[in-house]
Structures are given as structure tokens and as C-alpha cells.
Amino acid sequence: MSAHERFGNRLRRCRHCGIRVPRGEMIYYHRACSEDCADELWIREKFDPFVG
Q: What highest taxon heads this organism's lineage (predicted)?
């Protein structure tokens, strides 16, 4: 059974590292797969004037 068969469209791609994880396991408004990725996204949003 493939991941697509098991999770369907419930997999989401992490906005920082790009891996696909189940939506229920994501954090930071369903945009990051881990605390480290969430930290990097937060830093990028706060200090990069061209993001968001």
C-alpha cells in the first residue's frame, strides 16, 4: 500500500524542508513538519522583507 493510498490528499508539504507529512502531524498553522522547520519559517517571515 502506497502513502497516497493510505493518506490520500491529507499529506502536506513542509514549507521549509519540502518533505510530505500527514496534516495532523504538522505544526505552525499546518506549514511546518517539526519545531526546527517552524523556527526557520518564523525567522524567515520576521527578518526577510520579501516574504509574506
A: Bacteria
* Average pLDDT taken over every residue of the chain: 86
Distance CA 37, CA 30 (A): 11
The answer to whether the CB of 12 falls within 8 A of the CB of 24 is no
Cα-based distances in Å from 50 to 19, 24, 45, 46, 47: 23, 29, 9, 10, 9
Residue 47 grid coordinates: 527578518
Right CATH for 3-47 from 3.30.60, 3.30.70, 3.30.43, 3.40.50: 3.30.60
Task: Using a cut of 0.90, tell me whether the model's pTM lies above it.
Answer: no
